[in-house]
From TrEMBL:
Enzyme class: oxidoreductase
Protein name: Homoserine dehydrogenase
Pathway: Amino-acid biosynthesis; L-threonine biosynthesis; L-threonine from L-aspartate: step 3/5; Amino-acid biosynthesis; L-methionine biosynthesis via de novo pathway; L-homoserine from L-aspartate: step 3/3
Record PROSITE patterns: ACT, HOMOSER_DHGENASE
Active-site residues from the entry: K206 (proton donor)
Family assignment from sequence similarity: Belongs to the homoserine dehydrogenase family.
Protein residues bound to NADP(+): L10, G11, L12, G13, T14, V15, G16, S17
SUPFAM superfamilies, per database record: ACT-like, Glyceraldehyde-3-phosphate dehydrogenase-like, C-terminal domain, NAD(P)-binding Rossmann-fold domains
The organism of origin for this protein: Halobacillus yeomjeoni
Record-linked InterPro entries: ACT-like_dom_sf, ACT_dom, Asp/hSer_DH_NAD-bd, HDH, HDH_cat, HDH_CS, NAD(P)-bd_dom_sf
Coiled-coil blocks: none
Listed EC numbers: 1.1.1.3
């Protein structure tokens, strides 16, 4: 027998309208898969007077969340409005009223995932959040289900669509940062506050969620080393190409015997590395496991319909659970304590771009400093600088510990012949 499930939407913007569209266009497919008919009874918005397409003519548009959280007819809440603490309060209220939750909100899950999970367990509610990491790519489900038999050791990838879109356009079309950010906003990829994208925080939240789930540890957002893309210039993109690399904003989470390190930063990748060809708003995540070896997940990481696909798939998971009379969630209580890896244990290659005095001995002075910390070079190129009596130097080091590199950087800054250190990025690949 067909069952009618009533949904309350929190948010009817880019993702919310995509959810409405998929539920409408795939209505029969969803009925067939779940045995359920889905009705959207109400949607919470900031401005109910704004003209917009409604899910059905009878859908209530409201700016009072209680109209949804307290409505006894509503079975499932789909949260696609964003926000952290206020949204958390609303969802906790909804869970206490027995509502199942589907959310696309990584800000919320990275900060309050554990509390939401506990409340859902206590109240026998579902909690699903596939769209919170890498938009339309089912990477959370893959980690929680497909790879659940393995021990995950590393996850690495491009997990922010906006910055990947910006950097692709900068590299391919030489477009300036501000105009391409505006394009990404118009296309619905960027967060309400796009500084979260540009400064790497959005990617850091996603890497936090992946680390909690993949490593089964209560990893904290505050422990992620985060650098955004503001410091990347068209010169860096050009010199990186010359050295055989592309620059991408890469998240890396590693777990080995010396601890866990999670970072998000601009990274030079060898041109033939598969992540170098991930362009526009696309995302890709490598997951390494003891048994499986290497797997890669690729697809659209942002945008209306790709993100809504993940949200509606979560809703389908809830519908199936309701039919089975059970509850479930993509969360598990972390099993192991987190031991954050010391800087001395974190090894990477580095790219530097510097302006130096054009005089004999400058390069010697610099290499002498690096040698003191045991740092050697993979590649060095020099170019004339726009500034009189200066040269521009681009270097790629061999593997160096973060701690030693930082000491060498400080010593370099103290040299009279070093006029400025304009860029420092991580480099992947090779020793
Ligand atoms: N866009 C994307 O590609 C992706 C987004 N996400 C996540 O999905 C969520 C939604 O994103 P998106 O659809 O892009 O955002 P939008 O800004 O397009 O939509 C937000 C919606 O929520 C409503 N809203 C926001 N705050 C409130 C509030 N305090 N009270 C009532 N209504 C509110 C807005 O109302 P009104 O329409 O009146 O302004 C709007 O309808 C975010 O958590 C985002 O991080 C996740 C993956 C990809
Ligand atoms: N702003 C985010 C949206 C998806 O999570 C991004 O650009 O990736």
């Amino acid at each position: 027998m067909k069952q009618t499930i009533t949904v309350g939407l929190l948010g009817l913007g880019t993702v919310g309208s995509g959810v409405v569209e998929i539920l409408h266009d795939h209505k029969e497919r969803i009925q067939h898969k779940t045995g359920c008919d889905v009705t959207i009874k109400a949607a919470l918005v900031n401005d109910p007077s704004k003209k917009r397409e409604l899910p059905t003519s009878s859908t209530l548009l409201t700016d009072r969340h209680e109209d949804i959280t307290n409505d006894p007819d509503i079975d499932v809440i789909v949260e696609v409005m964003g926000g952290i603490d206020h949204t958390f309060t609303i969802l906790m209220e909804a869970i206490k009223n027995g509502k199942h939750i589907v959310t696309a909100n990584k800000d919320l899950i990275a900060k309050h995932g554990a509390e939401l999970f506990e409340a859902c367990q206590e109240n026998k509610c579902d909690l699903f959040y596939e769209a919170s990491v890498a938009g339309g790519i089912p990477v959370i489900r893959s980690i929680m289900d497909g790879l659940s038999s393995d021990r995950i050791t590393k996850m690495m990838g491009i997990v922010n669509g906006t910055t990947n879109y910006i950097m692709t356009k900068m590299a391919q079309e030489g477009v300036d940062f501000d105009s391409v950010l505006k394009e990404a906003q118009d296309l619905g990829f960027a967060e309400a506050d796009p500084t979260a994208d540009v400064d790497g925080l959005d990617a850091a939240r996603k890497m936090t969620i992946l680390s909690i789930l993949g490593f089964s540890m209560p990893y904290q957002l505050e422990d992620v080393d985060v650098k955004g893309i503001r410091g990347i210039s068209l010169e860096d993109i050009k010199y990186a190409e010359e050295l055989g690399y592309r620059i991408k904003l890469i998240g890396i989470a590693e777990n080995d015997e010396s601890g866990v390190s999670v970072s998000v930063e601009p990274t030079l990748l060898p041109i033939h590395h598969p992540l170098s060809s991930v362009n526009d708003e696309y995302n890709a995540v490598y997951v390494y496991g003891d048994a499986i070896g290497e797997t890669m997940f690729y697809g659209p990481g942002a945008g209306k319909l790709p993100t809504a696909t993940a949200v509606v798939s979560d809703l389908i998971a809830v519908l199936k659970n309701i039919r089975l009379g059970t509850t479930g969630t993509a969360y598990v209580q972390p099993q192991f304590p987190t031991q954050v890896k010391a800087k001395q244990q974190q090894w990477t290659k580095k790219y530097l771009r510097l302006q130096v005095q054009d005089q004999p001995g400058t390069l010697n002075e610099m290499t002498h400093i690096f040698a003191e910390y045991g740092i050697s070079f993979d590649q060095i190129i020099q170019r004339s600088s726009e500034k009189e009596d200066q040269r521009e130097i681009m270097m790629v080091t061999h593997q160096v510990s973060e701690e030693d590199f930082e000491k060498a950087r400080q010593d370099l800054e103290g040299l009279a012949s070093v006029k400025s250190i304009d860029s420092i990025f991580r480099v992947e690949g090779g020793n």
